Amino acid sequence: MGLERNDKPFDVETIKLALKGHIKEGYTFNPNTILTESDPSYNRTPSLHDQVHVLVCVVSAATLTILDDEHMQKLRDVRLAARDEGRGIVQVAILTHIDEACPEVKRDIKNVYRSKHLKEQMETLSKRLGIQLNCVFPVRNYSHEIETDDDMDTLILSAVRRIIDYGEDYLKDITDKENS
After folding, report:
1. Average pLDDT estimate for 112-137
2. Which of 7-11, 94-98, 140-144 is least confident?
3. For 91, phi and psi rounded to 5 degrees?
4. How far apart are CA 173 and CA 111, in angstroms?
């Protein structure tokens, strides 16, 4: 789900239902309607498979500085909903389009962790969302390249690997709690 400047505000309660697995596959979010238990898209008995295990916020480095407080508050509300109610859903952020925000990285992707500007952007995103800095992953998007690039792939795959690891850890914690 995207949060664009002209998007209507979404209902955080509907997002909470999605986090808990109460929304069936294929549901189309509509800011004009609130999902109720009588809706055919409402899943009354969600399994662990239906629930969210990792919350990933994706923010473009090219637009981070112009994101207004209202949009950041929407993202924080979803993040807090994932944390609350004892769910403990792991939360990460992906900072995309890093090459558009930093000429040093555009010249050479290997400069990603050497760039002071990019470090500041990661810290800003971390602070504004309330997500730990070690859970903010910078990636460069493929946009016009026709060949893959190992350095770009390394950043992308590293972020995906961490997301998978966090999800597996979450599931292990859940099953350990159920078995105790």
Report:
1. 94
2. 7-11
3. -130, 130
4. 36
CA distances from 57 to 93, 96, 172, 177 (A): 5, 10, 23, 27
pTM: 0.87
Task: Give the model's pLDDT for residue 10.
Answer: 65
> What b/e sequence results for 163-175 when a residue is b if at least 16 CB atoms lie within 10 Å of its CB, and e otherwise?
beebeeebeeeee
Measure CA 88 to chain center. Answer: 15
| 8-25 per-residue burial string, b: 16 or more CB within 10 A, e: under 16 | eebbeebbbbbbbbbbee
Instruction: Tally Cβ neighbours within 10 Å of residue 93.
Output: 26
> What is the distance between the alpha carbons of residues 149 and 68, in angstroms, rounded to a whole number?
33
pLDDT higher at 69 or 27: 27
Intra-chain end-to-end CA distance of the chain, in Å? 36
Residues 6+ apart with CB under 8 A from 64: 95, 101, 121, 124, 125
